Amino acid sequence: GSECNETSEKLSKIPKINFTKLFINGDFVEAVSGKTFDTIDPRTGEVIARIAEGDKEDIDLAVKAARHAFDHGKWPRMSGFERGRIMMKFADLIDEHVDELAGLDAIDAGKLFIPLKMGEIPAVADLFRYFAGAADKIHGETLKMSRELQGYTLLEPIGVAGLIIPWNFPSTMFSLKVAPALAAGCTMVVKPAEQTPLSALYYAHLAKLAGIPDGVLNVVTGFGHTAGAAISSHMDIDKVSFTGSTEVGRLIMQAAATSNLKHISLELGGKSPFIIFDDADVNTAVDLALNAVFYNKAKNNPTGEICVAGSRVFVQEGIYDEFVKQAVKRTKAWIVGDPFDSHVHQGPQVDKKQFERILYYIEQGKKEGATLLTGGNTCGEKGYYIEPTIFADVKDDMVIAKEEIFGPVMSLMKFKTVDEVIERANNTIYGLACGIVTNDLNLSNRVSRSIRAGVIWINCYFAFDRDCPYGGYKMSGFGRDNGLHALHKYLQVKSVVTPIYNSPW
Ligand code: ADP
Predict the structure, then answer these.
(1) Ligand 1 mean position to 305 CA, how many Å?
(2) From the alpha carbon of 222, which atom of ligand 1 is closest?
(3) Active site annotated at which positions (predicted)?
């Protein structure tokens, strides 16, 4: 590989790793088997810590604790207001420990420290506040019955939730699942990704300090095919919320179907189109497109490891050449390096497997005849660093245009007409997001309504907001994170009917 950019200013010390065991029923405990696994620093490929390796027996213990806390404990029975107050306290503790939490995700996932500290972790605290505010506003409806009956609905917590999360946003994903589940009054077992277990254990510690009762929030670290699979097939878990690959989403749905028909929601892969029309300002369009694929200045992932990445960039023919020129120029100025350095734009990929997978796709792009405009190499002597990469002349049926790469690889495609680009943009098994760049209101309205995806970003990208539902169409899954839609994933509806005037029924 080529040289990684030399960097100087280190921002923070690596945090001390205090929590490496499973968190079950309010205590940190070893796995039943006594086994551990290594979590790796993607900057160097070296071991950060040995983490307790939970498996089926540990999931059983965690579910037992969660079941007891749900069936007999205070959490589902206390007032929503009281739950909200405890969640607010949890949020304050997250803010107070922002350096530790940002440091843990930076070292474990290779994410940039400053965006974690300034953006992602504070947003996690705020998401807990958002759902804390909803906890005392959960109510059903008075029904308009057709006969002499009084009917109303109750919204009740669904029970024990299994929350399986991926490594690309360890903190955000934790909060997207845990915050609405807590607000609803559920108890839960969280399985963080094996690549990034550190911050979830730290959140568990803070949850206990905040006063969340024992057994309500359990964290079992371990692998997908063991601990994860034990969650999806468990007979005593009422709901699974999963974010990850489409392939694993399918396994989870099968396991739910063949066990207890637990409710599920899935947030899966994507291959989102980013469409730039002729009237767009090229500078702005390039900024947005680079942002949509490689990184996000404000607060997101600096490695392209994001399921909504706008990785198919369609550029209208009138500005195509100018767009390509500027995109390449700006990408070459990217600084790839240590995520603790404030000058760096892009850190390492999360692990060796992901690193190799991205390099495979880059090779595939070259083989199938796409034009490699910049990047394509690894960089640095050690660690999992890859240059931001742009391919032009990408055809719709090439592998790099169809499959999710989950890395800093942009595929550029030229188009002529609106109808053509709508059809091509929709020609995917996925439907997570879509970006549109134009100043023509009628055009953006028309395209927004024609694209089959869960989120449309016009003249922006990654514009997440806690009140804005987020989730997929088609094989990108179903169910929404963020917003009150997320709360309803952890609730179920009960109808209560009584006769009016004591009339006999
Ligand atoms: P990625 O391909 O992005 O690593 P995965 O879908 O493999 O995403 O992983 C996302 C989460 O799902 C992780 O916590 C992982 O351990 C878990 N997981 C993987 N395989 C399974 C499985 N068969 N059943 C349940 N969970 C799984």
Answers:
(1) 15
(2) 16
(3) 267
Q: What is the mean pLDDT of residues 50-78?
A: 98
User: What 8-state DSSP symbol labels residue 222?
Assistant: B
Lookup: tokens for 54: 């939970």
Residues sharing a CB contact under 8 Å with residue 344, sequence separation 6 or more, in sequence order: 5, 7, 112, 302, 335, 336, 337, 338
d(CA 411, ligand 1 centre) in Å: 26
Q: How far is CA 18 from the centre of its chain?
A: 25
pLDDT of residue 503: 66
Average pLDDT, stretch 280-290?
94
Handedness of CA 96, 98, 103, 105 (dihedral sign): positive
Instruction: Spell out the SS3 assignment of 303-371.
Output: CCCCCCCCCEEEEEHHHHHHHHHHHHHHHHCCCECCCCECCCCECCCCCHHHHHHHHHHHHHHHHCCCE
The residue among 258, 255, 270 whose CA lies nearest residue 224 is 255
In 239-316, alpha helices (H) = 246-258, 282-293
CB-based burial label for 239 (10 Å; 0-12, 13-18, 19+): buried
433/404 Cα distance (integer angstroms): 13
Q: What is the pLDDT of residues 327-341, one digit of tens each?
A: 999 999 888 888 888
Ligand 1 mutation target, pool 40, 59, 164, 254, most atoms within 8 A of CB: 164
- 3-state SS string over 445-462? HHHHHHCCCCEEEECCCC
ipTM of the predicted structure? Answer: 0.98
Q: How many CB atoms lie within 10 A of CB 26?
A: 17
Q: How far is the CA of 191 from the centre of ligand 1 (A)?
A: 9
